[in-house]
Amino acid sequence: MDWEMLKMNWNDRLRPDVVGQIVGNKKFVTDCAGWVKTYPSALLLVGPPGTGKTSAATVVARQSLGDQYNDMNLLWTNASDDRGIAYIRETVKNFARLSGFDVDRKVVILDEACGLTPAAQDSLRGIMEKYTEQVLFILTANYSDKIRPALKSRCIQYTFKNVSPKEGTKHLMRLTEIGAPQAWEENYDDVVMKFHGDLRAAVNWLESIPRDDDALNVCEFPKNVDAMGPIDENDWLTLRENLLSLYDTGGDRMSMMNTFHRRMSQHFDNDADTVFDVLSVWGEMMKLVYEWPASTESYIDVFVGKIKNKLER
Q1: Closest C-alpha among 289, 235, 234 to residue 258
Q2: CATH number for the domain formed by residue range(s) 25-159
């Protein structure tokens, strides 16, 4: 029994190993299947959280490195954590300048590259230009406009979208192999719709509920957070709890904030002035979604506090 595998969460265990396991995003899948010997100079995968960008980057790395998929030939980093110019100049450059072990090109994956500072992006561009013959750079980002044009121009860009219920169900069906009840399979299309095609959030929720045959019939889906309710009622503690719930479901601040925006946008016809006021605060906090130095709870507290102050003036 592979104990290391058992310790992994369901999203990690479900992460595709080959291109045939990627759902949706047909243009990328078709092109990736054709990259047998010749790969692009660099890739930029853009789209909302939970659409499979990181999984796709990993598939490309596995496919290109083959049996030599290891730490000597692959550098994987979350660029929202290691986001400064020092990391790019030291770690990434030092990795890129050394030849790969028994491969023509090594691979560098910079996940959430939109979290890199402008100076770090400028430095990365120079490294990509110099070492493109021996390194395949793969960047993922939630927002294309957060990537500087000079860096973007060096990449072939693919836009990832939330998957359809049909495509999402194909992904969730693999859960049966790792312990989910087979009885759940008939409800997976509903699960994908409830999570608006965000497969990461869907799998996180499925892993959190009891593994009983009827669990999908008796367990409540995470609240479809209607932020306007607490805002209209000046119920700031409930808004805080709702945002914490969104964070727990999505797994990161960016996913939480994107979902909040989607929920707020549904109310433009009802109370446009309030929505615009709230989204002006949302925009301010989005600038700090990667840079925030403290806990996510404190980020949410400040976000709610700013909304409260804005609306009570």
Answers
A1: 289
A2: 3.40.50.300
8-state DSSP, 161: -
In this structure, the number of other CB atoms found within 10 A of the CB of residue 116 comes to 28
Instruction: Output the six-digit token pair for 192.
Output: 């994908």
Ranges under pLDDT 70 in the chain: 1-7, 80, 82, 222-226, 250
Tens digit of each residue's pLDDT (9 = 90 or more) over 166-185: 999 999 999 999 999 999 99
CB within 8 Å of 260: residues ≥ 6 apart: 225, 227, 243, 246, 282
**Please, which residues have CB within 8 angstroms of residue 107's CB and are 6 or more apart in sequence?**
60, 61, 64, 65, 73, 74, 75, 135, 136, 137, 138
CA 127 – CA 269 distance, rounded (Å): 48
Question: E strands along 23-142, which residues?
Answer: 42-46, 74-78, 106-111, 135-141
Instruction: Specify the DSSP class assigned to residue 213.
Output: T
The pLDDT of residue 166 is: 93
Secondary structure E strands in the chain: 42-46, 74-78, 106-111, 135-141, 156-159
How would you classify the pairing of strands 135-141 and 106-111? parallel
113-128 pLDDT, tens digit each:
988 888 999 999 999 9
| In the block, residue with structure tokens 């044009």 | 149
Q: What does each C-alpha distance from 141 to 51, 106, 134, 138, 160 come to in angstroms?
A: 11, 21, 23, 10, 10
Tokens of residue 96, six digits: 């890129």
- All CATH 3.40.50.300 domain ranges in the chain, comma separated: 25-159
129: CB partners within 8 A, 6+ apart: 154
Residue type, 113: A
